[in-house]
Amino acid sequence: MESGLYKVAVKWAEKRKGWAEAASVPGGIAFSAPPEFGGEPGLWSPEHLLVLSVSSCFLTSLLFFADRGGLALAAYEAEGEGRLEPVPGQGYRFAEVVLRPVVLVEKEGDVALAQRLLEKAKRACIVSNSLSAPLRVEARVEVALPAEKV
Predict the structure, then answer these.
(1) Cα angle at 113 between 111 and 114, to 5 degrees?
(2) Looking at the structure, do residues 19 and 83 belong to the same domain, yes or no?
(3) What is the pTM for the complete model shown?
(4) Mean pLDDT of the chain, nearest integer
(5) How many CB atoms lie within 10 A of CB 138?
(6) Burial of 63 (0-12, 13-18, 19+ CB in 10 A)
(7) I need a surface site. Which of 42, 63, 88, 141 has the fewest CB within 10 A?
(8) 66 within 8 A of 105, measured Cβ to Cβ
(9) 51 dihedral zone (left: phi>0; alpha: psi -120 to 50; beta)
(10) Dihedral angle sign, alpha carbons of residues 114, 115, 120, 124
(11) Can you tell me the distance from the alpha carbon of 26 to that of 28, in angstroms, rounded to the nearest whole number?
(12) Which range (10-14, 25-29, 114-118, 144-148) has the least confidence?
């Protein structure tokens, strides 16, 4: 693929709340500014969605490399966080995004391969590569017990 175009549409609903849709995806997402910026609690914020974009891009990149590299994943879970910092005269910006994936592999011999593929996924993640904030990945790779396989 030489390039890609991804379209979304947003519209204002009320107060500091909006609705987002993409013609190519069913459903939509209600969002708001975060409560600390006067938004409505309980809704996705642009800040949450940015961290989610990085985290989901990282996972899909890892899945691509796992498929190509012959790595069978037993399970994957990750927590992610984005840290905002004030920028004098400009407002706020993300200082960094941190992902903490826990990867379960099926056999001991796959631990090193999983660690290499996690590094490849970090380097290949389109979303994090498009941000000025650095991505830090604190991964843990473990061998799954038979009951943990999904």
Answers:
(1) 65
(2) no
(3) 0.92
(4) 95
(5) 11
(6) middle
(7) 88
(8) no
(9) alpha
(10) positive
(11) 7
(12) 144-148
- Check which CATH number belongs to the domain holding 104 and give it: 3.30.300.20
The torsion angles phi and psi of 81, rounded to 5 degrees, stand at -150, 145
Q: Beta strand pairing status for 17-22 and 25-32?
A: antiparallel
Host domain of residue 125: 45-148
Asked if pLDDT for residue 1 goes beyond 90, the answer is no
pLDDT, tens only, 77-95: 999 999 999 999 999 999 9
**Non-local CB neighbours of 102 within 8 Å, separated by 6+ positions:** 75, 76, 77, 78, 139, 140, 142
120-132 as b/e, with b when 16 or more CB fall inside 10 Å?
Answer: bbbebbebbeebe
**pLDDT average, residue stretch 12-40:** 95
